[in-house]
């Protein structure tokens, strides 16, 4: 299930750069049926470094900053409309988001202050309150649709783009996540001789980066990319050894992809 969110239901939600903090909690025993999947993080927003694109899911929101941390078990998953209402009612007031990370399989609390101030000087007339692009989906299937980069041939488009053999996973592209085993292959075939922006996770660096590759048949070898690609249970992203309190510090800035 996926939802296209509009201005009225906080499609591209933004967060102020004035304050923010996280605290990690235990691995959850159960997950909600649906959550808000964080796809993009706006550059210079406090979510940049606190929310990890593609891996983080919002599973709760609480506007009462004095509520004890262990109260997240009672916090319901917000709908986009409910989240938008909380943000509007708490502009300039700290709120707490409960976030599940599919990579570390842990839940943490993130404290942020909804604000439009971070848009100041940008020329944008509709400043929004958070720095996230989200969709509604099932968090339990979070890491099923990833493609493991295997061998990379010399001189290939994959090598020219900097894809790392056996250390990189394709998580999505500029158009969003991909679904189904054939989705990545179909995407590549649709971009022959065209720049293709991919979001790639590095297990070695534990970060997500943007890679631009140009699939083509003229590079002198076989295949449009010149690399092997693995999909399925044997090619899932490994759980990192980095403690949850540290892994976000390694995540680079990501450009804003929408306006609210």
From TrEMBL:
Start and end residues of each PDZ GRASP-type domain: 34-139, 145-234
Residues annotated to bind Zn(2+): 37, 137
Lineage of the organism: Eukaryota, Fungi, Dikarya, Basidiomycota, Agaricomycotina
Stored PROSITE patterns: PDZ_GRASP (PS51865)
Record's subcellular location: Golgi apparatus membrane
GO cellular component: Golgi membrane
Keyword Membrane assigned: yes
SUPFAM superfamilies: PDZ domain-like
GO biological process: Golgi organization
Entry protein name: PDZ GRASP-type domain-containing protein
